[in-house]
């Protein structure tokens, strides 16, 4: 499978209730993967990445995030770049966020080993401010 196909499948697999996403991450990412979001400390290792996704349910509930891919390109070194619109909706279909994103993915042995998203965090920060322990969201330590 090409790196482009791996990334498309990875993003498609994210389109399920967030409570089910951690298992998808475990199956689709390397054990030492790094996930970064512009302006925030990176998550290092699959357990840390899964933890952040579990914590996002505290902010948004058991939402579903859909990634509408606008453009996708794979460089000669195999790095995959995406331009997309990520849309979050509750299980009932209520819109909770829309975020334009540029994502960069590295793939190793058919799994995502690095995932970095660049976006305007304003909408996310407004919702994170509702958390009783917002520091835990960033550090993974409660």
Automatic annotation (TrEMBL):
GO terms for molecular function: hydrolase activity. The lineage of its organism: Bacteria, Bacillati, Actinomycetota, Actinomycetes, Mycobacteriales. The keyword Hydrolase applies. It holds the Pfam family LEH. Keywords: Hydrolase. The keyword Ribosomal protein does not apply. Residues 3-128 form the Limonene-1,2-epoxide hydrolase domain. It comes from the Bacteria. This is Limonene-1,2-epoxide hydrolase. InterPro entries: LEH, NTF2-like_dom_sf.
């Amino acid at each position: 499978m090409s790196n482009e196909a791996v990334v498309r499948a990875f993003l498609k697999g994210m389109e399920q209730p967030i409570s089910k996403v951690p298992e998808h991450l475990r199956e689709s990412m390397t054990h030492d993967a790094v996930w970064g979001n512009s302006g925030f400390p990176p998550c290092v290792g699959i357990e840390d990445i899964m933890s952040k996704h579990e914590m996002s349910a505290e902010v948004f509930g058991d939402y579903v995030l859909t990634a509408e891919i606008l453009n996708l390109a794979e460089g000669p070194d195999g790095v995959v770049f995406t331009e997309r619109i990520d849309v979050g909706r509750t299980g009932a279909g209520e819109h909770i966020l829309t975020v334009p994103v540029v994502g960069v993915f590295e793939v190793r042995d058919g799994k995502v080993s690095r995932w970095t998203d660049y976006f305007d965090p304003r909408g996310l920060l407004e919702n994170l401010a509702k958390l009783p322990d917002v520091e835990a969201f960033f550090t993974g330590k409660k």
